[in-house]
Write a structure and sequence with these properties.
Elements: H1 2-31, H2 37-45, H3 47-59, H4 68-97, H5 110-137, H6 153-180, H7 190-200, H8 204-230, H9 236-245, E1 260-261, E2 264-265, H10 288-296, H11 302-306, H12 308-311, H13 318-337, H14 341-345, H15 349-356, H16 371-374, H17 382-386, H18 393-406, H19 413-425, E3 460-463, H20 466-470, H21 472-488, E4 492-493, H22 504-509, H23 512-529, E5 533-536, H24 539-548, E6 557-560, H25 561-570, E7 583-586, H26 600-608, E8 613-614, H27 644-653, E9 659-662, H28 665-680, E10 689-692, H29 693-705
Parallel strand pairs: 3-4, 3-5, 5-6, 7-8, 7-9, 9-10
Antiparallel strand pairs: 1-2
Bound molecules: iron/sulfur cluster (2 copies).
One iron/sulfur cluster binds at residues 306-309, 316, 318, 377-383, 393-394.
């Protein structure tokens, strides 16, 4: 007994000392990041949300269970960690107080004995499922189709092996306990009794030895596991709950975050280039929440598997952005944590070399993130939506873009024209602001244009957007929305020449200064005019007006046109009557769907149109696939891999549609271009077209109105 006790305690002290040292290192590294007081305040002010996050995301494994097979396997393995804590209490009790120890009050309870055995067996089955998934994926490891491409698979196998060791040593220890009569549970602990029956024939003396050895092995495996976990990607076992607490509310989608410096929103007028942080130019510029994100990544590759850039052959993998930043932060850590320049000079050459790597740069300069990676992102949000541990990829990508654009002036040159046009003309095409109201002349009714104040009897301001006002294909949507509102008797006015770009393309490119300029101008116009309710037909404008302008004092009730039109149809104020006998597949715009969760209304509108038969693409709703225009990609060349819009249209063609519908002017243009290419090559029928759901609705409503 004494020898067992000494071995167990010495191993525990050594392992906890090693683990404690690692925890301290990780804590110091994370704390070295920029402050993020808003995250602490959000967590404090939303205790209900914190609890819900832990219950739904961590304990309920909501996102993982969307991937049924692997999700279920992970669910059981994760719960095994909680339930088997009670087995470790019993193991330490046996080590300290004797092998016949049981937990006071509940330690002989059949339900607990059953649960411990059940979860261990379920976790074992989970491990087998994980092993099969990994073996199946193994030949494809170098193939982009595998979500594990770029993951550290050796480490994953080691962890599976360690969990397996936890389980078999548990049954060895408990089975021997059954045979010696020390085991506190009855037959409900079915697997332990099964192991006991197998060991029983070895006799009491042998089983006493097996029980002691099994106990020490069980404890030893856990201690080794603890040290391995703290030095591997499986840190998420401890960090996932913390990351979920400090996540953005309600999630990392929707609004882009203001530029933060030293824990405060950066004020461009007061900013000091020596003191302030402009985006992220080196890894130390990330906040502690950024460091927490990097350390929490499980390398599961779910983000990568959904990323439109990755799926079309570009070098961007959201997973590898996070793991590259993590690996760089860990390698640079001695430099970051050194107390003085003198200490830094004494660091090994490899650390100093790592410290000199630019955060963003090509292979020639050893950049951590390649420029082609940074600029490939469409901000579509598929990665954030999928991530089971709430990592906020878009925020990190955007912050790195901000540094590149604002400090280095380094970004794809094509986007420079768009920025100039925004600065000089208030729209990305550089057209005269007077042209913004031209579409009104093509209608057969009057649309009031706000000159100073919103007219008293007008309910909505119709925010037309640059594309809706100036791009020929998008103008058709604008006119359809206006006609539908007119038919339904909804009063509305437009800003006409007073409307400027919301600033979304500048902001998503990383040019926060131009965004701020446009946003402040628009908020001033809207506030001065007394605007309260806005209907927007562009999802990017909708997102910016409703969720970004409140950051600078613009607070309005904003709806997307599909939300308003669906309501009007529902209320009987619009009645689609003319049948449209077509197969239609709907493309979810990312900034309407994933970023703002509007999936239902566009589909409801189509369902109400007689004759329409809708077919979903295999990637739809929260797993929808971007058109390629977001993240200011509309204004950049797409030189690498397959074009994203072509990939999306290929998916649409699989449904054999007569029409592709959508609800965003940018999707309309991108999909329209790809459809035209398909028509030219004979891959799509000549009659195929892409339309906004508002165009479908007006087609069906109008005849009756006339
Ligand atoms: S936002 Fe979209 S394009 Fe950007 S990394 Fe995530 S999934 Fe890829
Ligand atoms: S970022 Fe999230 S989804 Fe992507 S690999 Fe890491 S844990 Fe998985």
């Amino acid at each position: 007994m004494l020898v067992r006790l000494i071995i167990g305690l010495v191993a525990t002290v050594i392992a906890f000392a090693i683990a404690g040292r690692r925890v301290l290192f990780l804590y110091r590294l994370t704390r070295s990041g920029q402050p993020a007081p808003e995250r602490i305040a959000a967590a404090k002010n939303d205790v209900g949300g914190d609890v819900k996050g832990q219950v739904v995301e961590v304990l309920g494994q909501r996102r993982l269970l969307k991937w049924t097979g692997p999700g279920l396997a992970h669910f059981f393995v994760m719960w095994a960690f909680f339930v088997l804590l009670t087995v470790y209490i019993e193991a330490y009790g046996a080590l300290l107080f004797g092998l016949d120890f049981h937990i006071p009050l509940i330690g002989r309870w059949a339900v607990l004995g059953f649960l411990q055995d059940f979860i261990a067996v379920a976790a074992l089955l989970g491990l087998i499922a994980f092993a099969i998934i990994r073996i199946k994926d193994s030949p494809k490891r170098l193939d982009r189709a595998s979500r594990f491409k770029g993951s550290h698979l050796g480490g994953a196998w080691l962890i599976l092996f360690m969990i397996f060791n936890v389980i078999w040593t548990m049954f060895l220890f408990r089975g021997a306990g059954v045979a010696t009569g020390n085991f506190p549970y009855g037959n409900a602990a079915f697997a332990s009794h099964g192991a006991g029956n197998l060991l029983d024939g070895l006799g009491r003396h042998t089983n006493e030895w097996i029980e002691s050895v099994g106990l020490l092995l069980h404890i030893g495996v856990m201690l080794a596991f603890l040290v391995i976990v703290l030095n591997s990607k499986h840190l998420h076992i401890f960090l996932a709950p913390v990351n979920v607490i400090f996540k953005r509310r309600p999630d990392g989608l929707g609004p882009a975050q203001p530029m933060m410096s030293n824990g405060q929103v950066l004020d461009f007028e007061e900013a000091d280039p020596d003191e302030d942080v402009f985006g992220r130019g080196k890894v130390e510029d990330f906040t502690w929440k950024g460091f927490l994100d990097f350390a929490t990544c499980t390398e599961c590759g779910r983000c990568q598997s959904q990323c439109p850039a990755w799926n079309t052959g570009k070098p961007l993998s959201p997973k590898m952005v996070i793991t590259d930043l993590r690996d760089h932060a860990l390698a640079k850590a001695p430099y970051i944590l050194a107390g003085s320049d003198a200490e830094r000079e004494k660091l090994p050459a490899d650390v100093l070399k790592e410290a000199e790597r630019p955060l963003v740069g090509g292979a020639d300069v050893g950049g951590v993130i390649e420029p082609d990676v940074l600029w490939a992102c469409t901000n579509c949000g598929a990665c954030v939506e999928q991530c089971p541990v709430d990592i906020e990829h878009i925020d990190h990508i955007l912050d790195m873009r901000r540094y590149q654009v604002m400090i280095e002036s380094s970004f794809p040159s094509e986007a420079g024209v768009m920025l100039k046009n925004l600065e000089n003309k208030g729209n990305p095409w550089g057209m005269s602001e007077m042209k913004r109201a031209d579409w009104i002349g093509e209608l057969d009714f009057e649309v009031p244009v706000v000159e100073d104040k919103m007219p008293e009897d007008v309910e909505y301001l119709f925010w037309v957007g640059c594309a809706g006002a100036l791009e020929d294909r998008a103008k058709r949507t604008t006119k359809a929305v206006a006609e539908l509102l007119h038919i339904a008797g909804v009063s509305f006015a437009v800003l006409g020449p007073m409307e400027a770009c919301t600033g979304d393309p500048a902001r998503r490119l990383g040019m926060e200064f131009v965004y701020q300029m446009l946003a402040q101008q628009n908020v001033e116009t809207l506030n001065d005019a007394g605007v309260q309710k806005i209907v927007a037909s562009c999802p990017h404008c909708f997102n910016t007006l409703s969720r970004e302008y409140p950051q600078i004092g613009g607070n309005y009730e904003v709806v997307h046109h599909t939300q308003l039109l669906a309501r009007l149809v529902d209320e009987g104020r619009l009645t689609p009557v003319t049948p449209i006998e077509e197969n239609i597949t709907y493309h979810d715009p990312c900034f309407l769907g994933r970023h703002n969760k509007v999936y239902r209304q566009p589909r409801e509108i189509m369902d109400k149109v007689p004759g329409v038969s809708t077919r979903e693409m295999h990637r739809c709703k929260d797993r929808g696939f971007c058109c390629g225009a977001g993240g200011a990609r509309m204004w950049m060349e797409e030189r690498i891999g397959k074009r994203i819009n072509t990939e999306r249209v290929d998916e649409a063609l699989e449904t054999d549609p007569d029409t592709v519908s959508t609800a965003c002017p940018f999707c309309l243009v991108m999909l329209g271009d790809a459809i035209n290419e398909k028509k030219n090559s004979g891959a799509a029928k000549e009659s195929l077209e892409v339309v906004d759901v508002a165009q479908l609705l007006i087609k069906s409503v109008k005849e009756r109105a006339e």
